[in-house]
Each structure stands twice: as structure tokens, then as C-alpha cells.
Design brief:
Blueprint lengths: L5 H11 L3 H10 L4 H18 L7 E8 L5 E9 L2 H4 L2 H17 L4 H6 L8 H12 L4 E9 L2 E6 L5 E8 L7 H14 L11 H17 L7 H16 L5 E2 L2 E5 H8 L4 E9 L3
Antiparallel strand pairs: 1-2, 2-3, 4-5, 5-8, 6-7
Helix pairs in contact: 1-2, 2-3, 3-7, 5-7, 9-10
Length: 279
């Protein structure tokens, strides 16, 4: 049996970031073989991942990056089980590593992002699993968005659990920094379901019409009037739930469409992505 020294434990801890007791146990089990000990620690992370796979992840961090030319944005959400873990330096560093990997790889999907090779040749998912072993909680990339547009703006809410990318088009020569942020904040706060009514899926439209008819029927309105009343309620739904038709939260005398057009004639939103942890 190899003698395990404090220096050996510290060396493995430096290599892996795992706790001192975990490192000592791994070295004892591996009879002093550092590579075998690293594998033991990795397997420990996988065991925790498997054991806690069904646990809820309602805390975490959302981070965003917009390219220097403003035409591409990345948005990631790394979730964990408890708030204290979301404040740990290693967790924050992992979230930043995930965002950096997204920027470097320009991954098209979350699966591609998690499979991307890191500096040590291992996948990003391997690094996430390693930290699970160290922290003892389920960690999960619950959202990844990659957006390209004429101009992309981003916003992360003060709780660091909600974020938005919004794509703008027909910008012209306008500086859209402020208005882009305002629109992104609007999306976080008001949670629109689509850019405009053409983006609302048919199932939602049908459901809102049926709800409108049932409400009118319950109020005793004549059957012949139900369709017209339901259409009126649908238009109200569009106004309240589609971004361009919503009243601007900072100035309800204008809609988002009007706000953008005032900033630069013809400017509008091409797309948006909203992600949230625990909501």
C-alpha cells in the first residue's frame, strides 16, 4: 500500500478541484496512482449525476454574450438545485466556461455545445459532471440560444436567473444600444409569446377563441354574437401577449412597434429568445 502524503492530496486537489477528503480517499483507493485517482473522482461525479438525475434545478445563473459587431448573441442557463451552490466560485466559473465554449464553438444546439472539446481534450459535459462530483448537486445546462441578426441586444435580469436575446432589423445607422436593452427588458418583464400575431401558433389562437366564446356564453350573450366577441378578445390577447403590440412598460403611451419606429424608421424585431431558471 502506497503512503499517501499531504502533498499528494494537495497535488490531486490542485489537478481536479475536488475536496481534500475526496482526494485522499481516491488516492488510497488508487494506491497512489494519480491518473487512476482522477478517474475515481470522475466516476464519483457520474454517480451523483445518475443518482440526482430526477432532482429539480430551480436555481442557477443565466449569462449572455454579444459579439463585438453586434450581429450574434449567445445565451446560456446553468441550473443547480440550491441557491448557495449558485453563488459558489466554481459554479460561476463553470457557467462562464460554458458561455466561452459557446462563443468559441458557435454551437448550433445544446447537444453540440455539451459535446464541444475543452482545453484538456475532454467534453464540456465531462467538466460539468466533474463539478457535480465536487459539489454534490445536479447541474444542468437548461437552455442555450444562439442568435444571429442585423443587430442583437441582450439583457440579464438582476436576479441572474432570467435573460433575453432580441434581434433587430432595418436598423439603418441608428445607435440601438439603449432601445435594444429596453426591448429586452420588456421581454423579461412581460413574457410575450411571439413577436407579433403572425407568430402565435394556431393551437393558441384556437384555444383563445374557444375561451372567448365560453366566457361570452357564460355571460348570456346570443350565440350569433359569440364569434365576433371571441375575435375581439383575441385581439386583446394579441395586444397583451405579442411583443410589438404590447405597451412599452416605461411609457405606456407607445407600443414597442412605435418605440422602435421612432428610434429608426422601419426598425422592428426579427426574433427574440427568453430563458429563465425556475420560472
Amino acid at each position: 500500500m502506497a503512503a499517501i502524503t499531504a502533498a499528494d492530496v494537495n497535488k490531486l486537489r490542485t489537478m481536479t478541484g475536488a475536496g481534500m477528503m475526496d482526494c485522499k480517499k481516491a488516492l488510497v483507493e488508487a494506491d497512489g496512482d494519480f491518473e487512476a485517482a482522477r478517474d475515481i473522482l470522475r466516476k464519483q461525479g457520474q454517480k451523483i449525476a445518475d443518482k440526482r438525475s430526477d432532482n429539480a434545478t430551480s436555481e442557477g445563473l443565466v449569462l449572455a454574450n454579444v459579439s463585438a459587431d453586434g450581429t450574434n448573441g449567445k445565451l446560456i442557463a446553468l441550473a443547480c438545485e440550491t441557491e448557495p451552490v449558485s453563488k459558489v466560485a466554481d459554479f460561476k466559473a463553470l457557467a462562464q466556461q460554458i458561455l466561452d465554449a459557446a462563443v468559441q464553438s458557435n454551437a448550433g444546439t445544446k447537444e453540440d455545445l455539451l459535446a464541444s472539446a475543452q482545453a484538456d481534450g475532454r467534453s464540456l459535459q465531462d467538466h460539468i459532471t466533474d463539478l457535480m462530483g465536487k459539489i454534490g448537486e445536479k447541474l444542468d445546462v437548461v437552455a442555450y440560444e444562439n442568435m444571429t441578426a442585423e443587430k442583437v441586444a441582450s439583457y440579464i435580469h438582476s436576479d441572474n436567473k432570467k435573460g433575453v436575446l432580441v434581434g433587430l432589423k432595418n436598423v439603418g445607422g441608428a445607435d440601438v444600444t439603449a432601445v435594444g436593452r429596453d426591448v429586452a427588458m420588456q421581454i423579461v418583464a412581460m413574457r410575450p409569446v411571439a413577436v407579433d400575431k403572425d407568430g402565435v401558433d394556431s393551437g393558441t389562437v384556437e384555444r383563445e377563441i374557444e375561451i372567448g366564446k365560453e366566457q361570452a356564453r357564460a355571460e348570456g350573450k346570443p350565440e350569433a354574437m359569440l364569434e365576433k366577441i371571441a375575435q375581439g378578445k383575441l385581439n386583446k390577447f394579441y395586444k397583451e401577449n405579442t411583443l410589438l403590440n404590447q405597451e412599452f412598460v416605461k411609457d405606456n403611451s407607445v407600443t414597442i412597434a412605435q418605440l422602435l419606429d421612432k428610434t429608426s424608421k422601419g426598425m422592428t424585431v426579427s426574433d427574440f429568445k427568453r430563458v429563465a431558471i425556475g420560472a
